């Protein structure tokens, strides 16, 4: 039983494009509707109730486009407002559960690191998800607020001294804790994979976007809801276009962004 409806993906801004990229790579026939709430980004420094309200707004927008499932490609929403997604009338995927499951699967010494926004780390959501799967696991979580602006400037080269210094400062507690696995708990962070790898050495890096894309593929396979005749059409909606929009989107998407494919929309109460 095929299902030609699109997959809906939302984020507080453009970071979720890295998740969308992984979904499109794994499921090239699936149509995708991406919504970035760029007019209210970032969510990571907002209060819990505001984050929940914004998440509901984003989810309602995607439901209006008749999507068959929704992905919260936002570590902050996944951490503090996932319950709003699980109450939806369509299947919901968030960043925490699948990343935690993969980290528990691959760790050898049960010491797992997590890096993310202040809101994500402060929520303790990764620790809770990991503990539910492996009560013996020790989790070291560190907020890395400078990673997002560095990525959006395009400073991701492992050979850049500034990038290396910032990465080293943030991940030092994770190295000292002896973690053998590290969850990249923000959608921007996979762009720093090589720089992080240069600092942490053999620690296994977990990209939540990869984990979620695999989970979606498993779900569609189990339910038979693949878009059998799809051509992988992609639609983009944002609530604001900043001067650096095209540059940032292109960096995160991994290819040039055609602004003619992006529609500016307004949300009620914005």
Descriptors:
six-stranded parallel sheet, 270 residues, alpha/beta, 12 helices
Question: What can you tell me about this protein's structure?
Answer:
The chain has 270 residues and is an alpha/beta fold. It is built from twelve helices and ten strands. The strands form two sheets. Strands 4-3-1-2-9-10 form a six-stranded parallel beta sheet, with helices on both faces.
What's a concise summary of this model?
By secondary structure, the chain is an alpha/beta fold. 44% of the residues lie in helices and 16% in strands.
SSE string, helix = H, strand = E? EHEHEHHEHEHHEHHEHEHEHE
Strand order of the largest sheet: 4-3-1-2-9-10
How much is the average pLDDT?
Answer: 93
* Radius of gyration, whole Å: 18 Å
Note the topology.
Elements: E1 7-11, H1 17-26, E2 32-36, H2 48-63, E3 69-72, H3 75-80, H4 82-86, E4 92-94, H5 95-106, E5 111-116, H6 118-123, H7 125-133, E6 138-143, H8 147-152, H9 161-176, E7 181-184, H10 193-200, E8 204-206, H11 208-223, E9 234-238, H12 245-253, E10 262-264
Parallel strand pairs: 1-2, 1-3, 2-9, 3-4, 5-6, 5-7, 7-8, 9-10
Helix pairs in contact: 1-11, 5-7, 5-11, 9-10
């Amino acid at each position: 039983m095929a299902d030609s409806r699109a997959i809906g993906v939302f984020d507080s801004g453009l970071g979720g494009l890295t998740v969308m990229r992984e979904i499109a790579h794994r499921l090239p026939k699936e149509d995708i509707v991406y919504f970035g709430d760029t007019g209210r980004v970032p969510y990571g420094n907002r209060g819990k109730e505001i984050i929940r309200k914004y998440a509901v707004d984003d989810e309602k927008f995607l439901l209006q486009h008749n999507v068959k499932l929704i992905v919260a490609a936002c570590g902050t929403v996944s951490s503090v407002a996932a319950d709003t997604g699980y109450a939806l009338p369509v299947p919901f995927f968030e960043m925490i559960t699948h990343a935690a499951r993969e980290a528990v699967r691959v760790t050898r010494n049960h010491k797992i690191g997590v890096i993310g926004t202040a809101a994500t780390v402060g929520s303790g959501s990764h620790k809770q998800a990991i503990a539910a799967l492996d009560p013996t696991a020790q989790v070291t979580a560190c907020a890395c607020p400078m990673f997002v602006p560095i990525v959006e400037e395009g400073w991701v080269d492992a050979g850049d001294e500034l990038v290396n210094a910032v990465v080293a400062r943030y991940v030092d507690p994770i190295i000292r804790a002896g973690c053998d696995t590290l969850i990249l708990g923000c959608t921007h962070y996979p762009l720093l994979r090589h720089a992080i790898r240069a600092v942490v050495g053999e620690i296994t890096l977990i990209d939540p976007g990869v984990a979620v894309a695999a989970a979606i593929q498993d779900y569609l396979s189990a339910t038979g809801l693949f878009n059998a005749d799809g051509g992988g059409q992609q639609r983009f909606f944002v609530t604001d276009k900043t001067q650096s929009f095209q540059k940032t989107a292109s960096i995160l998407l991994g290819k040039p962004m055609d602004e003619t494919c992006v529609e500016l929309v307004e949300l009620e109460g914005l």
